[in-house]
């Protein structure tokens, strides 16, 4: 009756096995897919166009949404189920067919999901091909990106590949949604409730081994609370149990690939060479049973430079490394928050409503996700999800995101016996 919902735990375990995130996060990802399906069912009755007043007597103007046709979904390894779910549910509700090209390193999740979805279609008299799957790497992605039969390319991945995809789709005047890298900051004010803020930063920085687009990578601490915050955060870091992501006690699974470990190692080396204080972590696990996996220690570093334009601050390192800087005024922290190329998620911890007003207003955070007393990661499906600047300006999931999956027509209808031109233009000899 509910094939996806019923498969939640098994599929969640498969996500955990193939991607490496811990089981509860794998299951949570499938739950997100279930949630967006429920959401899209309701939304399908509310995908309204509108009637616009006309300046001409006896005329009506309608704005009408129609399906686009074929939507290609190109997705990243770190959310091998949920990101497809966001796109599939909205795209289907809008009347489109989809072709999914998942990450080449998570084919099992995509095959399992596609089998579930196609069974639902076929039981309802619809061809399973309406939600097709193409596995493969770069070449398969390129074929979809370049195909004039694909009206919309929804791409989730790195800034590097997103730039290539964005340019390729634009060069054939196609439509594109880009959901790219994040470099997300949390700001802790002196009046923050540390009993909430410390665990939230811990989850944001260490959860999914730092492999979420919304992972907390930068932490700006007000001088008055910096020592206390770091002491409490270090205590949580020391409690991390690394190991088999399917095991109930594990908090930290491996990085997804060996090359991600190299990226982690190079970033630590760079931080050390620039004189950063590595407060905790900074190496791979040495325990025998972890040495053969890609297990790296979650790291907190205090770089010497607080210039956010420096590489160590301005690039997304897809690993559990948290860089910390200390500030005296909120304006300074907001400036640092905004000074990086990416603009996905951000989080301010305060009880002072004046700080909240500044943070969410025109001189506040320039990210797509601007949280207050909520960490940078772990979004719900109800609000549109996405980021600004080099994160790509795309929006998926809730809010008005569905409006990107349709083609809009402005239809002016004349039901009078005259044919006046707009703006009073006269064209008679
Ligand atoms: P990636 O850019 O390496 O790959 C993403 C997808 O693009 C894969 O399916 C890949 O096969 C395909 N691809 C690679 N080259 C291509 C090309 N030339 N043309 C077409 N397709 C091509 O990303 P990744 O390493 O799998 O994922 C991690 C990245 O994804 C991180 O930067 C992360 O922040 C980002 N991400 C962003 C969001 C978001 O919503 N903003 C969500 C999840 C992940």
UniProtKB/TrEMBL annotation:
<feature type="domain" description="Aldehyde dehydrogenase">
    <location>
        <begin position="4"/>
        <end position="408"/>
    </location>
</feature>
<protein>
    <recommendedName>
        <fullName>aldehyde dehydrogenase (NAD(+))</fullName>
        <ecNumber>1.2.1.3</ecNumber>
    </recommendedName>
</protein>
<keyword id="KW-0560">Oxidoreductase</keyword>
<dbReference type="InterPro" id="IPR016163">
    <property type="entry name" value="Ald_DH_C"/>
</dbReference>
<dbReference type="GO" id="GO:0004029">
    <property type="term" value="F:aldehyde dehydrogenase (NAD+) activity"/>
</dbReference>
<keyword id="KW-0520">NAD</keyword>
<dbReference type="InterPro" id="IPR015590">
    <property type="entry name" value="Aldehyde_DH_dom"/>
</dbReference>
<dbReference type="Pfam" id="PF00171">
    <property type="entry name" value="Aldedh"/>
</dbReference>
<comment type="similarity">
    <text>Belongs to the aldehyde dehydrogenase family.</text>
</comment>
<comment type="subunit">
    <text>Homotetramer.</text>
</comment>
<dbReference type="InterPro" id="IPR016162">
    <property type="entry name" value="Ald_DH_N"/>
</dbReference>
<dbReference type="InterPro" id="IPR016161">
    <property type="entry name" value="Ald_DH/histidinol_DH"/>
</dbReference>
<dbReference type="InterPro" id="IPR029510">
    <property type="entry name" value="Ald_DH_CS_GLU"/>
</dbReference>
<dbReference type="InterPro" id="IPR044638">
    <property type="entry name" value="ALDH7A1-like"/>
</dbReference>
<feature type="active site">
    <location>
        <position position="179"/>
    </location>
</feature>
